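User: Please work through this fold.
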Amino acid sequence: MMRRYLTILGIIAMILLSACSSEKNTFTNRWFHNTTSRYNAVFYAKANIGEIEKTIEKSHREDFTQVLPIFFPIDSALIDQNEELLVDVRDFASKAIDWHRISKWVDDSYFLLGLADYYDGKFDESSNTFRYLNVNSKKKRVRHRSLIQLMRQFTDIGNFEDAAYVIEYLSKESGINTENKFLLYKTLAYYYDQRQDVNGKIGALDRAISLTKDKKEKSRINFILAQLYQREGLDALAYSYYNEAVKGNPPYELAFFAQLFAQQVAELNKSKDVKRVRSYYDELFKDSKNKDLRDVILYEKALFELKQDDVQEAEKLLILAAKQESNNPLQKSYIYQKLAEINFEIKKDFKTTKYYLDSALAQIRPTDKIYAEINQKKGIFDNYVTHYEIINKNDSLIRLSQMSAEEQEMVAELFIKQEEERLLREAEQKSQQRSSGIFDNLLAFGGRGSGESFYFDNNLAMQRGSIEFYRNWGTRPLDDNWRRNIQGFQSSTRGNGALGPMSDTREEDRAEEQSSIIGQLPDKKSLLAQIPKTEEDVNLLREKLEESYFELGKLLYFDFKESLMSIEYLESLITTYPNSNKKAEAYYILYLANQEINGNPTLYVQRLNREFPDSPFTYSVNNPDAIKGNQAFLESSKLYKEAYEQYYAGNYAAARSIIRSTLENYPLTKNTSRLILLDIMVSGKVDDAERYKYRLENYIQTTEDSQLVKLARNMLLALTGEQVEIRSEREEVAMESQNNEEQTSETEEEAENEEDSPYRENPNQTHIFVIALDPEKARESKNLLADLETFHAQNFANSRLRTGNMNLNRQEVIFIVSPFNNAERAIAYRNKFMDDFNSGSIEKSDKENSFLISIENFQELNRRKNLNEYRQFYRRVYK
């Protein structure tokens, strides 16, 4: 019996051993390898991919105020943190291929390898794998899944042509199973989203939603569709999809926002409907489950009130929303952004708009989608406030300088009194806003009301006391006899219980609060010291005032589209400063602004022709239909070269004729200043010396190109005969001729580059400092971020600089330092970095290859992934 049992065991062992062979294609072999491959290597590889995808989903914080992304964004830093999972995927999938070559799970294993490479950002490797499976796999399921993933990858990197080819190929395929069809339409929606084709995106999502049984997935897609329909103005459809999104037990936040946004698109025909919606918001606010979402509720209620045209109530709700505690800084940014919109578009309060934009920007990171938009607007409003405050301050100081000393003192005392009254009003408001607590209620039974009869609990009393103290004693330290007398008692009680430390802390708090109040009061002596005493000081104020009137008028017309306000400032400029060197341009803007309001633009055409016949602005108003843009630049470049050759040959009349016709046909191009200077050079040959001198002086005052101004100044010095170390006019002409030949030969190429370049010069925008490394060196540079933090602590402690890194593409990893308010500050940082930054993580060449980029251009670079393309722009603009 035993012998028989052993024989059976031996036969089974032999069968199993023979089944281990990966070469023999027998039933037993196939069964063994299929089972082992599926339930071991492939199972664990799939599990790890699933874990990676869950981690990506969990790390993503949904911004429900924006249309939700089709796929959760992949953060390269997160992938780096989970690299071990991808290593295991590759290990398991490779074993399934090597050890179980005859199993039916080999193609699935290859697909998992491609997916691991995709998540790791190795697009070449993953693309090759998916292409291989499409050609060689006999399983339609794997082939179709590979093509869908390939389509997503092409869309990721902006290769829409290849993505479209895959779409067309798949459209002709038959036998696509339901799971792959769902992924196909979802990926198609992603493709249309990246192409900004809303209709295509809606159609693809609509097909996808009918192909999944996953309730959570359905809720999310319904929510996205509702958002899209709402933005298209189809409120009824949006309302329906928001209600569908609530079904299927979705995550709490998604359900909350679906119900919240449904109120925005609900049809309200009667006043009771409006009351119902307001009550709905109020009930949401009271619900303790929504404690962390109260800022959102108030924000949405504010938007609702704006739709009812109740701007005052909306603004009140937004201010209240900004004060709520929140874990979502983006939401705070939206609140401040909306307050900025109200103050800009409705109240026309540009100064307040600027401060709300400051608050909005402080809540977000440069990589957030709305950062570039807010930062760009902020730069414009920063300029507005700067010039607005210069006008108010300088105008007041100039008027004060014309008063007697006694009158100046009276004005200063009145100003201080008004400040005291303002501080008292603010303190009273704070006292009224103080919330009642349990101790206030207990004190009320003792006849003390809210407790505010106690001096140090009463803001108004504190403020009055501080002001009275300041009037009598000035800013002397709070260390009088009574305080010195009790110091011994305090020090003896500190070690005996809580009274000592509590008393000491409270006294320090009171001193600090009183000191801060006094610090807000202006000092009469310092106020009087600001008033200019000499004519030279007054003239400096007038120069700044003249510049600010012009810049504000220009800003109001071109950036704020406020033609009437622009006219007001520019008319003040030409009335107050009739000899301003900005007068011609002011006339031109007044001409444009009067066209906008159907005013009298002809008046300014006449003034330009009478007062500035040779101005480029005059040429522009005389020929309003002239060709502009890049074509005008190219044509004017060719004509400039031709005119210069005529000038150099001594054919001055022919040169002037070409110059004048070019300025008329192509006014206000980048060549305009060069053409005018060449015309002045002609004037030096054919006109009298006074005319030549006048034109040079005017050109120096009105031209912004520093190199051309230097050239004109040297010509003027040569004309007046001053003995200075400069080139003669003849030498300048020769130099200009040589430069012209070099520049003109490059003009068309430069124009083409500028036309083709997706990047724009914007020095006033927020900038980022970037170090680019290849992936291998980046992995070795583990201490780079820490070294940068140390460098910042030592040299930029108050700048609040932030560091980070990301994969730009498969060849480059970039390390980022931000933010810098403008290009000037970024350049100063890079100079300091080049001189003083030391790290074993990077080489000298890496430092030299570091660059600066504006936030708008960074968004474009991140989309295009072409670092060499940006470097060409960087070298041309920044170096």
Summary: The longest strand covers residues 813-820. The domain at 263-398 is CATH 1.25.40 (Serine Threonine Protein Phosphatase 5, Tetratricopeptide repeat).
